[in-house]
Amino acid sequence: MIVRKLRIERGLSQEQLASMAGISVRTLQRIERGANASSETLKCLAAVLETDFSALRNGQDMTSATDASLPDLPDDEQKAMEYVRDIRSFYTHAIQYAVTIAGLAVINLFTSPGYLWFLWAAFGWGVGLAVHGLSVFEVVNLFGDGWEKRQVAKRLARSRRDRVGGS
N or C: which end of the chain has fewer CB atoms below 10 A? Predict the structure, then answer.
């Protein structure tokens, strides 16, 4: 996560940073998601990001130990990064939809132009894409702001009750 934060602060894309550091984009994506990296890879990233190797190493240890976001990220920054990740996920979904439906349309028009069966796939997947978009852009918030916290609290209470009752 610290690599991602530093990359964004410097205005670099994943492709740019990977190229400058001499690593693959896929490796960088894994590191940004919390996977462990070799010391050599971290040294290359530290040189490009103009930061101390030990900072990246410590950040990686902290991420792998907790398997969560770094605690030194401000809450608003963490939420902003999650929001941007969700938007990117939606746009990726939309591109996959467009490419796949276009491909199905071409196949449909060449094999059986009298019946436009690809429209069924376009409609079904389109509904899912629309729901995804409404969720990402917070047009419809089915679960509300505190829903997740309430569910976690309810689950913890149930777990505690089961342990006490089962002892």
Answer: C
| Angle subtended at Cα 96 by Cα 91 and Cα 102, rounded to the nearest 5 degrees | 125
* Separation between Cα atoms, residue 19 and residue 1, nearest integer Å: 19
How deeply is 120 buried, as exposed, middle or buried, from its count of CB atoms within 10 A (0-12, 13-18, 19+)?
A: exposed
Q: Is the pLDDT of residue 78 over 80?
A: no
CB neighbours of 93 closer than 8 A, spacing ≥ 6? 129, 132
Integer angstrom CA distances of residue 55 from 73, 110, 143, 147, 149: 14, 57, 37, 35, 32
How far apart are alpha carbons 113 and 54 in whole angstroms? 62
Question: Which residue carries 């994943």 as its tokens?
Answer: 14
Q: Which residues lie below 8 Å from residue 150, measured CB to CB, with a gap of 6+?
A: none
pLDDT, position 51: 87
Least confident residue range of 15-19, 61-65, 138-142: 61-65
The distance in angstroms from the start CA to the end CA of the chain is: 40
| 99-139 residue pLDDT tens | 999 999 999 999 999 999 999 999 999 999 999 999 888 78
